[in-house]
Amino acid sequence: MSEKIKVRLKKLEDMRAAFFYSLSNTPEEDAWNKAESWVKERGFLQIDSNIRIFGRNIYPTENPEPHGYGIYITIPPNTKVESEVPVRLIPGGLYAVVKCNGVEEMSIIWPGLWKWVENSEHQYIGETKGEYGYELGFEEYLNWYSTLVEKNTINMKFDLMLQLREK
Q1: CATH number of the domain encompassing residue 52
Q2: pTM above the 0.85 mark?
Q3: Is the C-alpha dihedral spanning 38, 42, 46, 51 positive or negative?
Q4: Which domain holds residue 118?
Q5: Whole-angstrom Cα distance, residue 7 to residue 159?
Q6: Over the stretch 58-99, which tens digit does the pLDDT of each residue have?
């Protein structure tokens, strides 16, 4: 794969999302397992559903390992959520976005996106320290139905996203 990546700028509105977190040896899978039955019970896991699913690594310390993972599933404004399922806000604003084909490409695309931001007229908004640790960018599951519901991980597609501000 070429070192050049195609970055696009995308403006997002705030999105309300149900949040599921795991810190384990397989945090991505475990966070999804927590989310899956909740969204199935509500009928959100239909192939034609307009939900969006985002994920992000969450670091309990300033070290890269161990890391946890959070799954964010967008929910309509009037959806009632039980108190045991936290509701989080995916912040609106300007994002640098790069398409990524598969988990194996992430180790190439993420550093390329960080480098692009560093050399652009934009600036990363900064990491946040949330309830479970340090939070960075988002990964939007573009083909979430085949990836998460049908468990077809061969053709996973993501948008990798970093929130920006003007320098």
Answers
A1: 3.20.80.10
A2: yes
A3: negative
A4: 8-166
A5: 10
A6: 998 887 888 999 999 999 878 888 778 999 999 999 999 999
